[in-house]
Amino acid sequence: MRFYNELIYPWLVSSLGDPPPIKEVRERIVPSAQGTVLEIGVGPGANFIHYDPTTVSKVYALEPNPGMVRLAKQQRQQTELNIEFLDLPGERIPLEDATVDTVVSTFTLCTIPGVVDAIRGIRRVLKPDGKFIFFEHGLAPAPRMQRWQRWSEPIPHWLFEGCHVTRDIPSLITSGGFQIDQIEMAYLAPFPKSWTYCFWGNATTRPQ
Fold first, then answer.
1. What is the pTM of this model?
2. What tens digit of pLDDT does each residue of 114-130 get?
3. Which element (helix H / strand E) includes 202?
4. How many angstroms separate the CA atoms of 157 and 153, rounded?
């Protein structure tokens, strides 16, 4: 399994590239990050080129998969960003409380086993006026499509290192102490449609 996770899976993600509908969303949401940024689940570093180096002072790049880190370090060479890699899982963010201005998560909350703990950790490290930018797979609204998602979920779960396409992303975010300030949602590909329902937007922390 380690061979697949660290070699085959990074190669698979890199080979799939960044299809236009997904790239277009990245281009819209990632540039709004500013200050000190934590990106969880960096993967091959697809977001790096979309950060604005004039408004982002540093990016903490959290990624536990060594194969992904190798790809992300290659991607880093295309930017002027100050990037520091962190190799712990997303549930265990190794930063102090209220130390980052922006947290970015793209296609990560669907894969983290302890997603509730991860969202709590995001809230913990964000400054009170910080912003959480998200772009995630999730549960579709139509009951018929939900049935297809539940039936087929074992396939993306195996292929994409634990991906869940049936998580209710907005509910998870709000349950974790956030209020969603902006959100959009859509199917981003016609096939397999059940795997491509996505949510993207930003959220801020609710007072405790």
1. 0.92
2. 899 999 999 999 999 99
3. strand 197-205
4. 6
